[in-house]
Every structure is written in structure tokens, then in C-alpha cells.
Known about the structure:
Elements: E1 4-8, H1 12-22, E2 27-32, H2 35-52, E3 79-82, E4 94-97, H3 103-116, E5 123-125, H4 132-136, E6 145-149, E7 159-164, H5 170-182, E8 186-190, H6 199-215, H7 221-229, H8 232-236, H9 241-248, H10 250-260, H11 272-279, H12 296-317
Helix pairs in contact: 1-2
Amino acid sequence: xxxxxxxxxxxxxxxxxxxxxxxxxxxxxxxxxxxxxxxxxxxxxxxxxxxxxxxxxxxxxxxxxxxxxxxxxxxxxxxxxxxxxxxxxxxxxxxxxxxxxxxxxxxxxxxxxxxxxxxxxxxxxxxxxxxxxxxxxxxxxxxxxxxxxxxxxxxxxxxxxxxxxxxxxxxxxxxxxxxxxxxxxxxxxxxxxxxxxxxxxxxxxxxxxxxxxxxxxxxxxxxxxxxxxxxxxxxxxxxxxxxxxxxxxxxxxxxxxxxxxxxxxxxxxxxxxxxxxxxxxxxxxxxxxxxxxxxxxxxxxxxxxxxxxxxxxxxxxxxx
Length: 320
């Protein structure tokens, strides 16, 4: 039986999220502020979904292999339109909101969904900054509202964080978790609605230390990149940090921690070098400069290598 997914929004995340469902032969309804934007986003999603079939062709081509080429639903079988005009809420299995990171906008949208979407259908938000507890607030059906947080590019990165708000019913979260498992994503249950959820908290802990080391003159940005990519980051494509320490032994880690932990950065704000960059508008590639300058050619080449390497990493993870 075909799974039906309704996605609200037409930005980059919406396109990637829709593509990941289309690649699994789900029927997608993509809703935005105008039919034109929705249709354009859907076309991009279908094109992205087609590229996913080419990942890791060396794996088994048995019918149940995740790498086996699939005949996707045609564009005519998918749907698009304006959020305000949509009435076919009852035929969906899951609603995912991906609109602009504006709390009031999300709250208004969820208030509308609370009234229009049948109460048994889960509603997720891809927000990375606002807790689902604030978005759902005191809505009557807040029990079926949860975080469904993806990572860019959403069509390639396997993880989806299923975040339980204060009123989210655990059974609803588990049902969404199970749905993502069936669709070859890698969901994790975040059982409390805390800032940053799970992956971003770990990522920011690493970034705080990395930026502090750069500020202290211990290492350059390039050396930080290499230290992560070619040591523990390299290993993490094979197993996560907890399993890796099960392999190597917790005693060695514990002894090292006694020496290292007291010297780790515990700053509560962003470090001076990053603050200076922000003040100067040097936000990275999109501004042409961050910790280094970027030419248009370098940006194009680096982004292309990034996507190629992500797909290679996905092919490794599909061996699980």
C-alpha cells in the first residue's frame, strides 16, 4: 500500500525531504504559498530522487536491496498546491512542516493544521531552532505533534530526529519512527524537547572546542578539518562514538578524560574570531568569505565534492 506524505513549504529542505519520500515510492503532496512554487519544488524533488537510485550500484540488486533501482511514481501521481486551499488532509499518513524559521508563522500554521488534519494523523515540524513544545503550545491535538528534524541535504543524509514535545504521545512518536525505518531512513527518538535536540548538541560541543582551539592559535581551520576527517570522523562512518569506544575500551577513554576534560572549552558565547567574522558579514561561501576567501570556482568544486563524498558515505552506511 502506498504511503502518502504531505509536505508544507517549498524551500531547499522541502525539496530534499520530498525527494527522499519519492525515492521510496511514496505519494507526495507538496504545498506552498503558490501553486507555481509548489510545482517547481516538486519537479526539483523528482529530479533529486532520480539521482538517489545511482548510489552504491555495487551492493546487492536483490528486490529488497535499498540500492536496487526503483520505478518512481510519475509527476502526475504527485500533488501540489497552496496550503490555504488544500482540503485533502484525510488521505495522508504524515504531515511535515518545513516553512521559514519564524515561530509565529509556525504556530499559526500548526493552529490551522490542528483544526483541519484528522486527529489520528501525526504532524511533524522540521524546525531546527524552535522546540515542538512551543510550536504546538496548548493546541487540542498537541499529542500528535512532534519534531521531524532533517539535516541538509535531506535527500542524502539518513538521520531524522523524532523529537517528543511535552505533550507528544510516545505511541505517536514510535509510529512515526517505525514509518521512517520502513522507508530506509535512520530515525532516532529524542525523548525530551531540549535545545539542539540530539545531533546538533553533539555537533555544537565539537564546534565550540574546534573554534576555541583556532582562537588560541593551537591549530588552523584546515588542520581542524583534517584532524576530524582523518581520525575519529573517519571511524564514525563505520560505527558511532559509543560503539567505537566499546571496541577500543572505555578504560583508555576514561583515563584520557581525566587529563583532557578540565582543559576543554566551556565558553557560553561564540568565540571572538567567529564574532568578528559575523560583524564583518563574512558568513562563509554564500558571502565569498568566512575563515578563508572563496572564489566562485572553488565554491562550485567544493560543493560538488561534498555531495559526491556524502553519497559515497551513504553507500557505506547502506551496508548495515
